[in-house]
């Protein structure tokens, strides 16, 4: 039992770091591209999923877009479908999604750093550096870029 807890020790620390670094996103959503490009599509997809509809057209932007041609809406992204089952998409929900992706990116880099160092402390620092990097902080408003960086 102790070995299982020790395996989850550093990922738990990464979760704490991600939450402390980005907790203010739960109250304040970014502006610019998030408000006028990413949020309308994701909100529309979330509401459509909640109502049992799979739309073929997103009417809110550029006189409408086909749903499969808008990567910002997250149409085929499983976490958005899971979120949509439980709640509506809002700036608060976006904050939870952002913290989750920062945490997953940190855990992924923590595991990737195993190829370079056997020290868990060094790997933890590498995971923190990745999820707190300029890319994550500078592209807060571009959620699809953050998602791509997380899963790379």
Short summary of the structure?
Helix content is 63%, strand content 3%.
Keywords:
mainly alpha; two-stranded antiparallel ribbon; 2 strands
Report the sheet-strand fraction: under 5%
Alpha-carbon distance between the termini? 31 Å
Kindly provide the radius of gyration, computed on alpha-carbon positions and rounded to a whole number of angstroms. 17 Å
Mean pLDDT: 88
Largest beta sheet, briefly?
2 strands, antiparallel
State the total count of DSSP E strands: 2
Question: How would you describe this structure to a colleague?
Answer:
By secondary structure, the protein is an all-alpha fold. The chain is 63% helix and 3% strand. It has helices at 2-22, 33-50, 78-86, 91-112, 120-131, 134-138, 143-151, and strands at 57-58, 65-66. It has a two-stranded antiparallel sheet. Strand 1 (57-58) and strand 2 (65-66) form a beta hairpin. Helix 4 (91-112) runs parallel beside helix 7 (143-151). It is elongated and about 55 Å long.
Task: List the SSEs and their pairings.
Elements: H1 2-22, H2 33-50, E1 57-58, E2 65-66, H3 78-86, H4 91-112, H5 120-131, H6 134-138, H7 143-151
Antiparallel strand pairs: 1-2
């Amino acid at each position: 039992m102790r070995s299982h807890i020790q395996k989850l020790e550093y990922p738990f620390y990464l979760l704490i770091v991600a939450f402390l670094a980005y907790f203010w996103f739960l109250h304040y959503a970014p502006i610019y591209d998030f408000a006028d490009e990413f949020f309308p599509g994701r909100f529309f997809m979330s509401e459509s999923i909640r109502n049992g509809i799979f739309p073929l057209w997103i009417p809110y932007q550029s006189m409408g877009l086909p749903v499969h041609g808008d990567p910002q809406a997250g149409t085929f992204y499983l976490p958005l479908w899971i979120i949509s089952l439980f709640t509506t998409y809002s700036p608060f929900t976006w904050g939870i999604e952002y913290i989750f992706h920062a945490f997953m990116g940190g855990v992924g880099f923590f595991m990737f750093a195993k190829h370079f160092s056997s020290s868990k402390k060094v790997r933890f620092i590498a995971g923190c550096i990745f999820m707190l990097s300029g890319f994550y902080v500078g592209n807060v408003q571009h959620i699809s870029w953050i998602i791509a960086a997380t899963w790379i």
